[in-house]
Amino acid sequence: MLCLSLTPLLVLALGASLGAAFPQDALKKSCSLSKYQFLMPHELKAVQKMKEQFEDTMLLSDRKCNTRLFHRKWNTAELSVPDRVTLVEAELDLAIAMLSLPTTPKFAEARQRPLAFLTQAREDLRGCMGTEAPSSSGKLRHWLQKLQMAKKTETVSCLEASAILHLFQVLNDLRCAALREQCP
User: Fold this and answer.
1) Can you tell me the mean pLDDT for 100-128?
2) Over the chain, what HEC string results?
3) What pTM, to 2 d.p., does this model score?
4) Which residue stretches, if any, does this entry annotate as coiled coil (predicted)?
């Protein structure tokens, strides 16, 4: 009888000590983004179909943006891995915000799968980021400032066009961040 009442106490004590031995932040260090190294063809086709449908309905005036966010003088491969992750998170935030805007029923259907995929990728990235903010390079800091300025000064249609027309660049940056080593 006495042994049965001690068992739950031992289990609780063991669980508490194991929880302290493996802090939560240690789990972030072992995260893996490897599933984004090689994107599935059906995901790429869904993005391509959505992009084509957007281009078919886009007005010419939407192409004239003052800020060319995705035209950078540097390559993602030049950034450190933490900076790559920060870059991709910012790009995904913009893309998801633009794909979440109200739209026609036909385009809403076409964007469903890419939006779900991009949202999952952003959540996976956030799960890998530590609690402290990584120090970013001057290149990335400048681009992040440019992004914030564009959000304040550009039209929504301009930002939407930029984000959608450059989704394959965002996907390539995601792949580069997932490699965690040298990327092309």
Assistant:
1) 92
2) CHHHHHHHHHHHHHHHHHHHHCCHHHHHHCCCCHHHCCCCHHHHHHHHHHHHHHHHHCCHHHHCCCCCCCCCCCCHHHCCHHHHHHHHHHHHHHHHHHHCCCCCHHHHHHHHHHHHHHHHHHHHHHHHCCCCCCCCCHHHHHHHHHHHHHHHHCCHHHHHHHHHHCHHHHHHHHHHHHHCCCCC
3) 0.78
4) none
